[in-house]
């Protein structure tokens, strides 16, 4: 697995260096920056601010009184881990941030392999699934100053522990994961469905679900829900603003639709109308939801098993409830990585090779669209 990961890093690093070489001067770097500078664009700067200065005691406001973009949108585990590495090694932020991301990406690939073996009971398919993940369109995000690689590792570990029914071991993983990327509420939804599924199967005599195990699983549900709500509570306690975290997150979509209240399940409609317009935008949204439902019912996806499908569905519903689709959408789909197992179920070598090649092409497209800064770029990753 690590050889596959290393090979993929060679390809992805080459793509990033090629774009860095033609990168014009921008607010973050001079023209043609080195790799480490280029890997610390966008949210990497926010994580750097958190690592060095922590979080503001007062929420910054725009001229018209709305909460502005600020560091509270970024969870603390990744930047504080990098800060610890900086303290121990004496490395600067840029090197330490990339190193932490790469190490967790490598560990994540090992966990994904074990997860795929557990779900598909096929080592060869699991091996190819990891290769598809490593060479996939979002692969560059695994080696820049973002928390995604750490979250992939923690999420993969959490899903593996659920499949192994090790609920008590799962508890600290859930908490750390929820303070790495916003995931606690989505994972709580998944665990509720998981517990309901196991209880239903136990009622039918198809599976044992003893009382002690039930209470452990319920503890995991409650822990995940509490962890998902904890960060907004911390922001409230630190800033005195009850809705400070939500308003902070809404600041990022204000550039598109202005400042509005969070109404669950409306952001996708707002986005469809902003990007495409009425009525075609709504038609496109309905089509996207329908395609997602059909994908979840596909035989290849069903091979993943009930639990992984429940996670993918739960996370999809979570995004539908709270996220405003824009250029960051691609990155936010990364937690659906178990789908790589379904993609490689067909054993055709031509198909698998085509998927990997398409992933590399997708990397180029993603870096060009979302990472590389071309003038006044409005497509953040």
Quick structural overview:
The protein has 381 residues and is an all-alpha fold.
Largest sheet: none
- Content of β-strand: under 5%
Tally the beta strands. 0
- The string of secondary-structure elements, in order, is HHHHHHHHHHHHHHHHHHH
Shape by Cα distribution:
globular
Number of helices, counting only DSSP H or I runs of 4 residues or more = 19
Radius of gyration: 21 Å
On the 0-100 scale, what is the average pLDDT? 96
* End-to-end distance: 27 Å
Instruction: Classify the secondary structure makeup into a structural class.
Output: mainly alpha
Q: Uncertain regions: pLDDT < 50 for 5+ in a row?
A: none
Question: How many structural units, i.e. domains?
Answer: 1
Q: Helical amount among residues, as a percent range? A: 55-70%
